[in-house]
Amino acid sequence: MSDFLSDWYDWIKAVHVIAVMAWMAGMLYLPRLYVYHADAEVGSELSETLKIMERRLLRAIINPAMMVAFILGIGLIFTPGVIDFGQGWIWLKLFCAVIGMGGMHAYLSRWRKDFEADRNTKAAGFYRKVNEIPTVFMIIIVIMVIVRPF
């Protein structure tokens, strides 16, 4: 298995980065849809259209992209000679990616179900603030992977 991972490392890394980019795009767009949805009248044409857009974005882009990013990320972790777990950067990167982004993904999924059932209780301003959280995680993750400051 380690020979396979080593031989295909560049391809695994490339597809992992593509999946992360798709995941991030969705994670930045979905809360923006929630901003508009929070202001839309329940049952209105806009509200029903946003429900469709949110569901499709989550199911067709965000969920598959996250799964591919996680699976290939695990492959990268187990590629011999790539990661030194004695360095602190990898732990912060993993925390932000798995706990931070994974947790944010779970919250976005739960809030979509609230909108779907017409039981959202949060204001548009809440979703505007939430929209910044994936960006913060992304910045930390990129710095950890590229700069490896510790």
Oligomer: single chain
Quick one: overall form? Answer: elongated
The H/E string reads HHHHHH
What proportion of the residues form beta strands (DSSP E)? under 5%
Q: What is the helix content?
A: over 70%
Query: Tell me about the biggest sheet?
Result: none
Radius of gyration: 18 Å
SS field, number of helical segments: 6
- Tally of extended strands? 0
Quickly give the structural class. mainly alpha
How many structural units, i.e. domains? 1
Low-confidence stretches: none
- Average pLDDT confidence is 96
Report on this structure.
This protein is an all-alpha fold and 150 residues long. The chain has one domain. The chain contains six helices and no strands.
Quick description:
Helices cover 80% and strands 0% of the residues. By secondary structure, it is mainly α.
Q: Which terms summarize this structure?
A:
150 residues; mainly alpha; 0% strand; elongated
Summarize the topology.
Elements lengths: L1 H6 L1 H31 L5 H33 L10 H29 L7 H7 L2 H14 L4
Helix pairs in contact: 2-3, 2-4, 2-5, 3-4, 4-6
